[in-house]
Amino acid sequence: MEAVKEPLRLMEIERELAGPDRQEALVRYDAVLSALDRRIEASMKEGLPPDEYAAVAALREANTLARKILRLSVRVGG
């Protein structure tokens, strides 16, 4: 098993979302997730093979949940 050489990015995100500039961090990370949602939507509109559609639909649901958790974490932490 290979050792992790870089610090976990998730921990950095958590610190940003709990810090004094949490609103700015929320906007920045939500913009990334929003852009991903637009790309997912565009792919789904273009049409996907059935096996890919199911995977992309699951990704879209996970992305939606990530955005909700992001907002909730800033509200609770703030």
Detailed description of the structure:
With 78 residues, the protein is an all-alpha fold. Helices cover 81% and strands 0% of the residues. It contains three helices and no strands. α1 packs across α2. It is elongated, with a radius of gyration of 16 Å.
Largest sheet: none
> How much is the average pLDDT?
88
Unreliably modeled segments: none
Order of helices and strands: HHH
What is the 3D form? elongated
Number of strands: 0
Question: What is the C-alpha radius of gyration, as a whole number of Å?
Answer: 16 Å
Classify the beta-strand content into a percent band. under 5%
User: How many helices in DSSP terms?
Assistant: 3
Q: Report how far apart the termini are.
A: 38 Å
Helical amount: over 70%
Question: What structural category characterises the helix and strand content?
Answer: mainly alpha
Main features:
single chain, 78 residues, mainly alpha, elongated
Question: Helix and strand layout, with pairings?
Answer:
Blueprint lengths: L8 H10 L3 H25 L3 H28 L1
Give the gist of this structure.
Helix content is 81%, strand content 0%. The protein contains three helices and no strands. It has helices at 9-18, 22-46, 50-77.
